[in-house]
Specification:
- The protein is α/β, with parallel strands linked by helices.
- The protein has 2 domains: 221 residues, TIM Barrel, CATH 3.20.20.70; 109 residues, Roll (2,3-Dihydroxybiphenyl 1,2-Dioxygenase, domain 1).
- It is built from 12 helices and 18 strands.
- Strands 12-13-14-11-15-18-17-16 form an 8-stranded mixed beta sheet.
- Helix 2 runs parallel beside helix 10 and helix 3 packs parallel to helix 4.
- The longest helix has 16 residues.
- It starts with a strand and ends with a strand.
C-alpha cells in the first residue's frame, strides 16, 4: 500500500508501509490519553480482547511516551502510534519509544517533512481544503480529519473528496451510533475514537467494560446478517422446481440466473452442486475485507480461491474453509 510519495532531487521515492492497510482492516483506532503508564499494557490487552488491537496514545499526558514504550515492548501485535504530536522533539521521542505512526492535531509542514524523511507514516489533522491541498502536494495519501463532527462530519468530506486524492481518518465526535455514517463512505480509511477508552474507565481499571465496548463497536462495524441460503440441486431442472415451489408457497419472486435460481432474496437454488454437502449460507457484512481481518483474529480461515474483488480491489465475496452443519459459508458485501 502506498502511504506517501516524496520527491527529492528529481527522484521519486515511494515508501511502502503496512500501517495504512492494518489500520483500515481494524477500522477503529482507539485514541488514548493515559495518566499512568502502568495501565498501558492492561489497557492494550483489553482493547485486543475486544477486537481492536490498535492504540493512538496521545502526548497530552506526561505518561504518553512511556505508555507507548510499554505497549510496543509487551504487545507487539498492537498497532501503536503517537497522537497529539506537536513538534519534532515529541515526534522523535515517540519513534524512539516504538510508535509506528505519528498523528498531529493540525497540519505542520516541518513535522510532515521530518516524518517523511524518517520513513514514519504521518497523519496530520486537516479540517479545510487548504491544509488538505498541502497534504496532497506533500505526497500524503491519508490525513486525520479532526474534530470530525464539529467540522462538518462525513457530509463535508463527501463534498471535498471528488477534488482531493486523499483518504481520511475522522476523529472527534465519532461513536458507535454514527460510526457507520463514516465507514460506509469508501474514502474513510478508519475512524479514531475515545468512547471505548474514556478517562473514568481507564483510571477505574475497568478492563472488562472496555473490552465489551470494543466488541460492540466491532459488531456494529461489521454488521453481520443472514443474506440467503443456497441449496445444492442436482441440475437446472431441479433448481427451477425447488425455486418455483418456494415462490409459490411463500409468495416470493421467481428470479432465474446464470448459475442459480432465486426465490425472493432468501433462497438460492444452485443449478449444479457447489461448495458444501447441502449448499451454502451467505452472511452479509459492511466490509468483507474488515470481516476477514477480524475473523482471522479468531483463527477463522478462508478459501482464497473463492475470493472475488471489485474494480478497486476490495473483496466482495469469499468462502470460509470450515463447513457448518454440511453448509459452506461465504461472506458477501452488502
Amino acid at each position: 500500500m502506498i502511504l506517501y510519495m516524496n520527491r527529492s532531487n528529481g527522484r521519486k521515492l515511494t515508501i511502502m508501509n503496512d500501517v495504512f492497510q492494518t489500520a483500515s482492516n481494524i477500522g477503529i483506532i482507539p485514541v488514548i490519553a493515559i495518566k499512568g503508564a502502568a495501565d498501558a499494557v492492561p489497557l492494550a490487552k483489553a482493547l485486543t480482547a475486544g477486537g481492536l488491537p490498535a492504540a493512538e496514545v496521545t502526548f497530552r499526558t506526561a505518561a504518553g511516551e512511556e505508555a507507548i514504550r510499554q505497549i510496543a515492548q509487551n504487545c507487539p501485535n498492537v498497532l501503536i502510534g503517537a497522537g497529539t504530536v506537536l513538534n519534532l522533539d515529541q515526534c522523535d521521542r515517540a519513534i524512539a519509544a516504538g510508535a509506528r505512526f505519528i498523528v498531529s492535531p493540525g497540519y505542520n509542514d516541518v513535522l510532515v517533512t521530518h516524518c517523511i524523511e524518517k520513513n514514519i507514516p504521518v497523519f496530520p489533522g486537516c479540517t479545510n481544503a487548504s491544509d488538505m491541498t498541502k497534504a496532497v502536494n506533500a505526497g500524503l495519501k491519508i490525513v486525520k480529519f479532526f474534530p470530525a463532527e464539529q467540522s462538518g462530519g462525513v457530509a463535508f468530506l463527501k463534498s471535498l473528496a471528488p477534488v482531493l486524492p486523499l483518504d481520511f481518518m475522522p476523529t472527534g465526535g465519532v461513536n458507535t451510533k454514527n460510526l457507520m455514517d463514516y465507514l460506509s463512505f469508501d474514502r474513510i480509511a478508519a475512524c479514531g475514537g475515545t468512547w471505548m477508552v474514556k478517562k473514568e474507565l481507564i483510571e477505574g481499571q475497568k478492563w472488562d467494560e472496555i473490552t465489551a465496548i470494543c466488541k460492540d463497536a466491532v459488531k456494529t462495524m461489521l454488521g453481520f446478517e443472514l443474506r440467503h441460503v443456497g441449496i445444492n440441486c442436482a441440475d437446472e431442472a431441479e433448481a427451477e422446481k425447488v425455486a418455483k415451489a418456494f415462490a409459490a408457497v411463500f409468495g416470493m419472486e421467481y428470479k432465474p440466473g446464470n448459475s442459480s435460481v432465486f426465490a425472493g432474496t432468501a433462497v438460492e437454488c444452485m443449478k449444479r452442486p457447489y461448495l458444501g454437502a447441502h449448499g451454502h449460507i451467505a452472511i452479509g457484512t459492511n466490509s468483507v475485507d474488515r470481516a476477514v481481518y477480524h475473523l482471522g483474529l479468531q483463527n477463522v480461515e478462508f478459501d482464497e480461491s473463492t475470493r472475488k474483488t471489485d474494480a478497486k480491489g476490495k473483496t466482495t465475496v469469499i468462502y470460509l474453509k470450515e463447513l457448518f452443519g454440511g453448509f459452506a459459508v461465504h461472506l458477501v458485501r452488502k
